[in-house]
Structure formats: structure tokens, C-alpha cells
Amino acid sequence: MLLLINSANCQVAGFAMATVGWILTTTSMGLVEWRVWYIENNALMPPGLVCVGMWKVCVYHHVSDHNKVTLCQRYSYRDPYLPLDIRVSQNLLLIASILGLLGRASIIFALRNAYLGILRENATFNPFVASGILNLASGICIAITVVWNYHSVMSEQGISFPPSLLIPFKPNTQEIGSAFLVACLAAFMMLLSGVIFLSHKFSTATQVHPQTSDT
């Protein structure tokens, strides 16, 4: 009985982690602070801040102590100036979001079957295992995006933005933004939830059943 209770608690915890991880994934997609560029005086633009996201770039100019001008431009998939890491990361985040959504649907289906007592361990399709695989794949996609973005910032790679944005190829300094941290947490949540649901199959298979002794 205790094993069943612990298994149910793990399932609920895995569902909560997958839900939070999926929300953080979609949130990181909309954030622009993946790379933060600090621009000092140069021939193209006055001192300011440039936030490079996966789908748009925003330029912040301080006109005075209390006034700030913001200019944002969304990318087009056909924009030739986008580097390879951003193009690939866009697709990876989209795939991660879809896989995470499918994983949550599979978890709900599995929890429903477990609640109704119709989940069969020897069935060909185990929704807990399917959800674990989907969540692991989603977490891997996010992790690749995170590592690639980290490498791009640490190696101080530049981007050839169009002249209309007046952004130099490289900033004076650049650092990792808050979106990176959100994506890191999302990857951790999705990977952990995947491990929990994959381990569900093995934990249920090793449950101790009453045995009769031969006399």
C-alpha cells in the first residue's frame, strides 16, 4: 500500500514539474533577454542596451535620466542576417513546446487510467513511458538551445543586423540575459519529469507482492 502511495505521489509531482516546465518553455520563447548587449558611443548609435531574443531584437536608448526610447523588430524566418544558432534554436524551442504539450496530454491520459484502475503494465502502449520520452526529448531540445546560446555569448559572437536598426556587429560587452535562466529551469523541469515517468514503469514492476510459501 505504501508503495502505491509513493508511486501516486511521484506521478503527481511529475505532472506538476512537466506543467511548470512547459509554462517556462513557452515563456522563454517570448522573452527577448537571451543576450544582453551593452553599446557605448560608436558611429552607428548612441549608448544604449540591445536585447537579442529568439524572435525579435529590442534596442533601448536613454534620452535622459527619466526618458527611454525602445525600438523592437521581429525577425522573419527569411531574414538572411540571422545566425545559424538562432535559426536552429527557434525550431528547437518550437519542437520542445509541442513535445511538452503532447507529454502533458499523455500524463493526463495516464493519470486518468490509473485513477480508474484501467492502466495495464503489460500493455503495448504505456502513457507514462510515452510521457517520459516526450518530456525528455523536450528537455534535450531546450538544453541544446541553452548551451548554444551560452557558447555564443561566451565567445562574443556578433550578428549582422540590418543597417536600419543601427546596431553594430558586436557590442562592447555582452552577457547572458534572464531568458537564459528561465530556459535552464525549464530544461531541468522537463528532464526531471521525464525521468520520473520513465522510472514509473520500473518502480511498478519491482513492487513486492504477497507470496505463498510451499509446505
UniProtKB/TrEMBL annotation:
<feature type="transmembrane region" description="Helical">
    <location>
        <begin position="12"/>
        <end position="32"/>
    </location>
</feature>
<feature type="transmembrane region" description="Helical">
    <location>
        <begin position="92"/>
        <end position="111"/>
    </location>
</feature>
<dbReference type="GO" id="GO:0005886">
    <property type="term" value="C:plasma membrane"/>
</dbReference>
<keyword id="KW-0965">Cell junction</keyword>
<dbReference type="GO" id="GO:0005198">
    <property type="term" value="F:structural molecule activity"/>
</dbReference>
<dbReference type="Pfam" id="PF13903">
    <property type="entry name" value="Claudin_2"/>
</dbReference>
<feature type="transmembrane region" description="Helical">
    <location>
        <begin position="123"/>
        <end position="148"/>
    </location>
</feature>
<feature type="transmembrane region" description="Helical">
    <location>
        <begin position="176"/>
        <end position="198"/>
    </location>
</feature>
<keyword id="KW-0472">Membrane</keyword>
<dbReference type="InterPro" id="IPR006187">
    <property type="entry name" value="Claudin"/>
</dbReference>
<keyword id="KW-0796">Tight junction</keyword>
<comment type="similarity">
    <text>Belongs to the claudin family.</text>
</comment>
<dbReference type="InterPro" id="IPR004031">
    <property type="entry name" value="PMP22/EMP/MP20/Claudin"/>
</dbReference>
<protein>
    <submittedName>
        <fullName>Claudin-34</fullName>
    </submittedName>
</protein>
<dbReference type="GO" id="GO:0005923">
    <property type="term" value="C:bicellular tight junction"/>
</dbReference>
<keyword id="KW-1133">Transmembrane helix</keyword>
<keyword id="KW-1003">Cell membrane</keyword>
<keyword id="KW-0812">Transmembrane</keyword>
